[in-house]
Structures are given as C-alpha cells and as structure tokens.
C-alpha cells in the first residue's frame, strides 16, 4: 500500500503513532545512515507516503532492511518522503542513494516507478527494487509484487463468518488499481461465504490526493460511518490512515482487520489489539531482505518477483488468541486458501 512524510496525526494517541508524528508534514527529505566505505556493502530504502512508523507497509520494508543489517552485516541507509512532493524529489532521492554507493536501492511503493525509470539506467551496476509495481522494467530493476487480492479474499471469508449483522466494511486509502485489488478480493471472499452479506466500500481520497494513506482521522471517520450503518467488521487498506479505522472499531467494540503487517503485534496499536481480529499480511520484509541478499551474494534478482499464497507471500495472521479459538472460521479460511492455491478459486483483481 502507499503512504506521505510522517505527519502530525489527529485522534490517535498511541505511542507508535506519536513516533510517526515526530516529524511534521513539510519536512525535508531525510537520509539516515553514513555513506559506505569503498568496497563496503550497503543497502538503502526510500520510504513511501506515511514514512517509517506507519505500523504497516513502510515498517514492513524497514524490518527487511534491519534483518539484512543484522544477518548480512551490511550498512544501511533510509530516506523519507516529503509532504506533497513531486517526481523530481523522488528522482533526487534515489540518485543520492545510488551515488553514495548503496546497492540495492529500493523504492517502497508504486509511486517510485517514474523515478526509477529515469534513475536506474544512469547506474547500471546498481540494482533498483520497486515494491508493488511492474510497469517499469530494466536489466537492473527488480519488481517485488504481491497477490494482495488472495490475502484479502481470506479476510473476506473471516469477516463474513464472524459478522453478526451481515454487514461489513472496506476502506481503501486512495482509489488506485493496487487498492482496488484489496477491495475485489475482500468483497469476493465475503460474498462467496455469505451471498446475502452487504459490503460497504469507501475510498478516503482520489489521486493525486494521497492523504488517504497518511491521515488517521480520515480512516477513523470512515469507519465510524460504516459502523453507524451496521458494519461490525471493518477492513482498511489505507496505510497509516488505517490506524484510525482500527481505533474507531475498537471504540465501538467491533472487529477491525489490519493490513500489510500483523497489526495485532504492532506496539503502536497495542491499546486496540483486542479488536484486531486478524491482518492481511504481505511479506514485504522477506522481499526486501531477499533482494538485498541476492545483491550481496553477487546474483541480484531482477524482473518480476511475485509473492502469493502459494509461497506464503500473502496470508492472514492468527496472532489474536480470540481468532485462534474460532475453529469454524479458521477451517473456512484454510479451505479457501487451499482452493486458491489449487486454482479451484480464481480471485478477482478488480471489483
């Protein structure tokens, strides 16, 4: 999913979201980590909207970078986005990271596609990774992509099984094709499980306004509206804004479904965790680590590298003890997973 510079948030009092707000909107792009010495391995990531501390997409990428730092004993660098930035800012950010000798340089999110298209040819010996995009290709570009619709289908099955009202909600951060994959899979999973169920769908913003990935107050208001309309399970694919939806569901005693990371285990959301039924996970951490390792091993990954249910690249978290007690829900989810892998179920990628 996509995310803006860490900005001051509204209505989220948790510690991690406070961490997220330590840098106010409008800050300059930041680059942490010193330049590697000659011959010293170093990897870098450039964050997407929301930045590190979003408890979701960017934090998963950071976890992969940290794993590489610890396991592979390499240096690392990070660069944050700027509020309302343009393509030129991304080009400059990637160029600076590459010039400093980082390899690979990974753009977290599809918004980096135009910039990578411009920068990658200028640094042919550097591997560029991009998460959630296949539109830009090249001999030194690795496209790290996921079958989000498959994980979302499982979330739809779970939501339909636990719902008592027969109404559930989907909240998308920004109405772009990637997020519509989440909506499509979720809706199909709900309807295949309970044809009579109602799915309330709402997008927070339309491009080029990407606040729907960054502002928790937008997610909170949308979730409150859906709950008032009868939804007792809300699934938000909205990055940092999804934290607001989780807060709203918790306040109303309803179920929330997290996204990208296992949000039940995110420290910044701990006060709401009892109401996080499950999360649709994307193994962004492993995708980042694997790319970095491939470069260090001298066999850099390139081209499309896809992570689906068959490779546990997407899935449904079971960290919540209450979820683990729901034998009928888990059985339905497991059957759906097996049927998708066996190609008995084809999950839609558009609503």
Explained architecture:
This protein is α/β, with parallel strands linked by helices and 351 residues long. Helix content is 36%, strand content 19%. The chain is built from 11 helices and 13 strands. The strands form 2 sheets. Strands 1-3-2-4-5-6-12 form a 7-stranded mixed β-sheet, sandwiched between helices. Helix 2 (57-71) runs parallel beside helix 9 (284-296) and helix 5 runs antiparallel to helix 11. It is globular.
Compose a concise summary of this entry:
Helix content is 36%, strand content 19%.
Number of helices: 11
Helix content: 25-40%
Q: Specify the oligomeric state.
A: single chain
What is the radius of gyration?
19 Å
Q: For the terminal residues, how far apart are their CA atoms? A: 17 Å
What can be said about the biggest beta sheet? 7 strands, mixed
In terms of per-residue confidence, which ranges show pLDDT below 50 for 5 or more consecutive residues? 1-30
Tell me, what's the shape?
globular
Structural class: alpha/beta
Count of distinct strands: 13
- Strand order in the largest sheet: 1-3-2-4-5-6-12
Mean pLDDT level: 90
Task: Summarize the helices and strands and which ones pair or pack.
Layout lengths: L14 H6 L10 E2 L9 E5 L10 H15 L3 E5 L7 H13 L5 E3 L5 H7 L8 E4 L9 E6 L1 H15 L4 E8 L2 H17 L4 E8 L10 H13 L4 E5 L4 H10 L3 E6 L15 E7 L1 H13 L6 E5 L6 E3 L4 H4 L2 H15 L10
Parallel strand pairs: 2-3, 2-4, 4-5, 5-6, 6-12, 7-8, 7-9, 9-10, 10-11
Antiparallel strand pairs: 1-3, 11-13
Helix pairs in contact: 2-9, 3-4, 5-6, 5-11, 7-8
